[in-house]
């Protein structure tokens, strides 16, 4: 098995929304904001190469939304999903599986594009891949609550189903993949899936939005986007303890600087141990 860090671009979100009740005077130490209170975040994906399978975990927000949409999210930087895959030696046609931790636009939008200039016909970006979600979260996404409605975009979702490429896991069941186990969490959104990958002598956890960045490690640092913040804190506390005790490697999807970290127990709770690129363990 080989792992590849796949960078799908940078974007910005409001710092207050990303850190919830934590004051800006504290969170800006790790995630400095611009003059509009916006912080930069990564859309970092993970590619698992194992024999005849290429499994892409999440795929960023893509580029098919209109100019008005991107004015809110400030896509920038030199990274792009296609270029990152090519740099790793692969094309869109090579991907066999697209595993989606959840269906918010910044995690699944890169899997669908417009086929026509009029932006009326959408198609999947990975024509030979099976797209994976789970049944409970899919229903949550296509019949969204008012709080999350702006994050679940039908143009990202329906083409996956209409293409015949979508496959839904029974929520809470064991992973259909030999390459990783799945932790289901409900604080950020219903039935988000967190892959735990066994690699060499390590457990690598694709943290998605359970732990967006190193700046979110302290327990109260919970996003304002989370639908059930108190449940997030419970899930996060269990995960942090387990990760520190077992020396998991946390792979960050959104940290703009750090790809990976380990955690340690301290008198103040679980804290950052060290950060490093994924390449250090490959």
Shape field: globular
In order across it, which strands form the biggest sheet? 1-2-3-4-7-8
Strand content: 25-35%
Low-confidence stretches: none
The amount of helix comes to 10-25%
Rg value: 18 Å
Quick structural summary:
This protein has 282 residues and is of the alpha/beta class. The chain has helices spanning 15-19, 24-27, 67-73, 81-87, 105-108, 135-142, 154-162, 229-246, and strands at residues 2-14, 38-50, 53-57, 97-99, 112-114, 122-124, 130-134, 166-169, 180-185, 192-199, 202-206, 249-251, 260-266, 269-276.
Q: Could you characterize the architecture of this molecule?
A:
The chain has 282 residues and is an alpha/beta fold. 22% of the residues lie in helices and 30% in strands. The chain is built from eight helices and 14 strands. Strand 11 (202-206), helix 8 (229-246) and strand 12 (249-251) form a beta-alpha-beta unit.
